[in-house]
Amino acid sequence: MDYTPALMTDMYEYTMLDATLRDGAANRKCVFEVFTRRLPEGRRYGVVAGTGRILDMLEDFHLSDEDLRFLADRHIVSRETVKWLENFRFTGTIRGYREGEMFFPNSPILQVEGTFGECTLLETLILSVLNYDSAVASAASRMVTAAKDRPCMDMGGRRTNEAAAVAAARASAVGGFQGTANLMAARRYGLKAIGTAAHCFTLVHDSERDAFASQIASLGRNTTLLVDTYNIEEAVRTAVEVAGPELGGVRIDSGDLAALAQRVRNQLDALGATETTITVTNDLDEYAIAALQTAPVDSYGVGTMLVTGSGAPTCAMVYKLTERENSDGVMQPVAKKSKDKATVPGRKLAYRSYEYNLADCEHVVSGSEEKLAAFRPQDGWKDLLVDYVRDGEIDHTYQGHDAIMAAHEHRAKALAELPITAQSLMKGEPVIPTETTVL
After folding, report:
1. 204: part of which helix (H) or strand (E)?
2. CA-CA distance, 10 to 124, in Å (whole number)?
3. Residue 147 domain-assigned (yes or no)
4. Side-chain half-sphere of 274: how many Cα atoms within 13 Å?
5. Other CB atoms closer than 10 Å to residue 270's CB: what's the count?
6. Tag placement on the chain: N or C end, fewer CB within 10 Å?
7. Pairwise CA distance, residues 46 & 358, whole Å
8. How much is the pLDDT for 1?
9. Whose CA is closest to 55, among 405, 389, 390, 391?
10. Model pTM greater than 0.85?
11. Minimal CA–CA distance to 121: which of 48, 193, 209, 18?
12. Beta strands in 235-298 (DSSP E)
C-alpha cells in the first residue's frame, strides 16, 4: 500500500497546528511522552516493538503538492499553514525504550521533544505503530515462552489487512518468532521466509501421491508435506514412500494436535523417518502451544491469535504533553488532572533495578531538564532509554534487518532478567512494580 506517512493521522493534529501557528504557540518547545496506564488484563509484561518502523516513516514524513492541495481544498488548514508545511521536516529529538525491551504501566516508552507544531503531527502515527506492533510482539513473546526451544513461525497474513500483515511479521520477529510466510515482510526486513503448500495443492491433483511427488520434485526431499487433507495415517505412509526416510517434515493442521503428533511421530519412526520433523498449525495461541509441550512437536505456525495480539490487539498507549515552554520562554512541567487519566508532569528518566541478577523494580524519575541532569541513579540501575533521533538526525542503528535481530535477541535477554513468574500464562499483576519519583 502506497501512502503518505504525514497523512496517516487524525484531522485534529492539523487543525491544532493551524490554530497554534496563528497564535504563536506552535513554536513553543515541548516534550511529549508515550506510555500505557495498564497492561492487558492479567498480563505480566509488555514488549516494545515498532520504533524502527516509526524511524522509517519519519524519513518520509513530508507532504507532496497533492497532499497539500487536499488539506487546503478541504479547508483543514489555512494557506499560511500550507506554506509552513511545504518544507516540513522533523528537527526534534526522540528517545525511548529500545525495541525488544520489557515495559510496564507508566513506563516512558517514547519521548518526543521539539516544537509543539512538529510534535503534534507525529501523535497518531506513533500511537498506531507502537500500539499494534507492541501488542503483536507481546503476544509473540508469550507464545515463544510457551513453545520452549521449539520455533514459532508467523502465518497470520491472511487474518488481518495487508499492511498490518507486514507490520505483524516484523513485530513477531522482535517478539521471538523465527520466520514468516509473508513475502513482503521477508523482503522488506530480511526475515526468513517459510511455506510449502496448502490443502488446495493436494486437492487439485488426481491423488495425494501425485501431489506429494510434485512437491518433492519441485522443492526437494527436505520439504514439509501437509498430511491432513484426507487420512493422516495413509498420508504419512505415502509421504515416506514418495520421499524416502529423508523427508524433511510433515504438517498437521486439524484435529487433536497432541494425540495426532504422538501417533505421527511413532509412525514416522517405525517407517525409518526418524529425523522427519512435525509442524502443527490450526488456530494456535500461547495456551494451545503450552498444552502441546509434552507432544512430539518440532515447530508451530501461528496465525489469527498472533496478528490480533492474542486477545489484546492494542496496548492502550497514549501520547501526552508533559512539559512545554511558557510565555516567558521557560520550560514548565504540565499534567492532566482528569479523573482516571491524570498524568505525571515533566520529562522522564527510566531505570531498572536488580537484586541477585533479577529485576525487582522499574524506576521512573520525572522533573525539569536541569534536575534530571543532576540526578544520579543508584549503583546497579540499568538505564532503559536510548536516543533514536537527535536534533532531527536519525540513528540508523535502529533501522533495518540488523536492528530487528538485535531486538529479537534483546527480548530474550530482558525476559530472562525478570522474575520467572513473568513467563507464567496465569493471570496476574505486572511482574515488577513501577515507582515514580517527581524531583
Report:
1. helix 199-204
2. 6
3. no
4. 2
5. 12
6. N
7. 17
8. 58
9. 389
10. yes
11. 18
12. 249-252, 277-280
- φ, ψ dihedrals at 276, nearest 5°: -70, 130
**What are the Cα distances from residue 259, in Å, to 264, 296, 302, 306?**
9, 9, 19, 24
Contact assessment for residue 386 and residue 96, using Cβ atoms and an 8 Å cutoff: yes
What is d(CA 111, CA 345) in angstroms, rounded to the nearest whole number? 13
Pick out the chain residues at pLDDT < 50. none
- The SS3 of residue 286 is helix
Q: How far is CA 50 from CA 56, 134, 191, 403, in A?
A: 10, 7, 15, 11
319 and 283 co-located in one domain: no
Give CA torsion, residues 185, 127, 4, 182, to 10 deg: 10
Burial of 106 from C-beta contacts in 10 A (0-12 / 13-18 / 19+): buried
CB 27 within 8 A of CB 413: no
Which cell numbers hold the place of 101? 525491551
Sign of CA dihedral 178, 182, 185, 186: positive
> Residue 15 sits in which domain range?
5-136+312-344+384-417
Question: Does a structural domain hold residue 177?
Answer: no
Q: What is the CATH number of the domain that holds 408?
A: 3.20.140.10
Count of C-beta atoms within a 10 Å radius of residue 279? 22
Q: In this predicted structure, what is the pLDDT of residue 329?
A: 92
Residues 234 and 335 reside in one and the same domain: no
Based on its alpha-carbon atoms, the radius of gyration of the chain, rounded to whole angstroms, reads 25
Please tell me whether residues 274 and 326 are part of one structural domain: no
Check: CB of residue 137 under 8 Å from CB of residue 157: no
Give the CA diameter of the chain.
83
- Nearest-angstrom CA–CA distance, 155 and 430: 29
The three cell numbers of residue 358 are 533479577
Q: Residues in the chain, how many?
A: 439
Which amino acid appears at position 179 of this protein? G
